[in-house]
């Protein structure tokens, strides 16, 4: 067999074009599909060779698939859909056949504008003979997809188009960034659990998937479970916490230079009603509150090791933790809160509501927010962030405008709701 690694959109498009030209027939099994209203080159290639298309299995989860694509495939009598809630259909399979041989493109790219142009994706092209075991394994997987799918009728498509148009309503203000309740959405009520997929795949998400996950989390967290620090329980109000902390540290540079109210907010020791408690409330940490109020320079000594902009080395993080954890009455929970508020683009705070799920999903046993084993905790935290930094969504060329630019500014800190125990299906616990 021949294998080719594909890591750029230009090369991916060239291989797609070549395989379509050379094949006798082809099939698709993709989680999402979009065409840019028919203008995307990837879709124009599919359209050009539609007579060779035997079948397209397309997922409809999260309303990411463009209705235009569905109507076109349905018109060609090639469309099968997967729209159930027994786990998320997440395949990206492009299977081409010749007389005796086959080729397949598989990896991270959906049949979307993002998957073929904007995202940082990785795929593999494999060519071989139909007599090889690998081809039979591919066929077996495709049959599983086919078994789970069904052929839609026109009413199905019209209903999906209505849901698609209404499902995601975005205003210019991030605090009103809402996903509507749709009867066929994977999660249909505030307080529902996220599927295992969100935790198992978080380090493989591309930017599109990461942002869409946050949209759903906003909807789910409009629930009394999360009505702790503001009146309406809207988790996106927490963006105000990050905004205030980000603006304060960039304006004043140090905690000791901040006005007392802003310093308390940054450190999480202000009143619950201020909303500062997102990302770790420290209102019950009496000794720490005293340091924040009367001796903030003690904190600056260590927090200054972390630069306000640019990269942060692992050595700088280690120095920060070793320093601040040597201060009496300061544990890792406090250290994480301060680190994440100073650099929300790079660091995640861990607290009582997220610790259990993070440890279970990453298998990093030392990653406990109030760990007494300093060296083990630091190494586990660094390893956790290595995985984050290697994620496609983190390495994506970040947006500079609009609502996604605001998300990108706080992209690592925003990970915490993905690990909320309440959303993992575990028993409700108090924060």
Total of DSSP H or I helical runs spanning 4+ residues: 18
Which spans have pLDDT < 50 for at least 5 consecutive residues? Answer: 168-192, 223-234, 425-431
Structural class: alpha+beta
Strand content: 5-15%
As laid out across the biggest beta sheet, the strand order is: 1-7-6-5-2-3-4
The percent of residues in helical segments reads 40-55%
Cα-atom Rg, whole angstroms? 24 Å
Rough outline: elongated
Distance between the termini: 54 Å
- Total individual domains: 2
Helix-strand sequence: EHEHEHEEEHEHHEEHHHHHHHHHHHH
Q: Tell me about the biggest sheet?
A: 7 strands, mixed
Descriptive report:
The structure is a single chain. The strands form two sheets. The protein has a seven-stranded mixed beta sheet with strand order 1-7-6-5-2-3-4, sandwiched between helices. Mean pLDDT is 82; it is low at 168-192, 223-234 and 425-431. Helices cover 43% and strands 11% of the residues. Helix 3 packs antiparallel against helix 6 (154-167) and helix 9 crosses helix 10. It is elongated. It has two domains: 2-156, Endonuclease, Chain A; 224-424. The N and C termini lie far apart (54 Å). With 431 residues, the chain is α+β, with helices and mostly antiparallel strands.
């Amino acid at each position: 067999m021949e294998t080719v690694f594909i890591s750029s959109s230009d090369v991916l498009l060239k291989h797609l074009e070549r395989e379509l030209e050379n094949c006798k027939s082809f099939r698709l099994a993709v989680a999402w599909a979009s065409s840019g209203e028919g203008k995307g080159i990837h879709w124009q290639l599919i359209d050009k060779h539609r007579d060779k298309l035997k079948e397209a299995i397309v997922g409809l989860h999260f309303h990411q698939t463009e209705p235009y694509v569905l109507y076109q495939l349905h018109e060609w009598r090639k469309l099968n859909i997967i729209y159930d809630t027994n786990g998320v259909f997440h395949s990206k399979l492009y299977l081409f056949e010749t007389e005796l041989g086959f080729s397949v493109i598989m990896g991270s790219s959906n049949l979307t504008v993002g998957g073929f142009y904007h995202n940082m994706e990785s795929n593999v092209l494999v060519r071989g003979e139909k007599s090889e075991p690998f081809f039979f394994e591919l066929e077996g997987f495709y049959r599983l997809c086919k078994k789970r799918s069904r052929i839609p009728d026109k009413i199905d498509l019209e209903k999906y188009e209505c849901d698609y148009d209404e499902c995601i309503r975005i205003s210019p203000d991030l605090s009103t960034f809402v996903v509507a309740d749709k009867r066929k959405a994977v999660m249909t009520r505030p307080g529902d659990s996220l599927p295992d997929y969100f935790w198992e795949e978080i380090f493989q998400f591309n930017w599109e998937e990461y942002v869409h996950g946050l949209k759903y989390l906003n909807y789910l967290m409009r629930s009394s479970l999360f009505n702790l620090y503001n009146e309406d329980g809207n988790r996106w109000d927490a963006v105000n916490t990050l905004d205030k902390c980000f603006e304060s540290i960039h304006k004043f540079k140090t905690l000791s230079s901040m006005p007392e109210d802003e310093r308390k907010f940054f450190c999480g020791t202000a009143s619950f009603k201020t909303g500062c408690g997102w990302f770790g409330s420290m209102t019950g940490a009496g000794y720490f509150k005293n340091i924040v109020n009367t001796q903030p320079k003690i904190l600056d000594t260590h927090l200054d090791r972390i630069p306000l902009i640019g990269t942060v080395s692992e050595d700088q993080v280690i120095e920060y933790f070793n320093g601040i954890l040597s201060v009496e009455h300061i544990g890792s929970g406090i250290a994480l809160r301060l680190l994440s508020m100073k650099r929300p683009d790079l660091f995640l705070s861990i607290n009582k509501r997220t610790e259990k799920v993070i440890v279970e999903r990453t298998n990093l046993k030392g990653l406990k927010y109030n760990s007494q084993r300093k060296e083990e905790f630091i190494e586990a935290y660094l390893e956790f962030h290595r995985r984050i930094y290697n994620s496609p969504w983190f390495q994506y060329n970040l947006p500079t405008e609009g609502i996604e630019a605001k998300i990108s500014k706080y992209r690592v800190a925003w990970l915490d709701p993905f690990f909320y125990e309440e959303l993992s299906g575990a028993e409700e616990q108090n924060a």
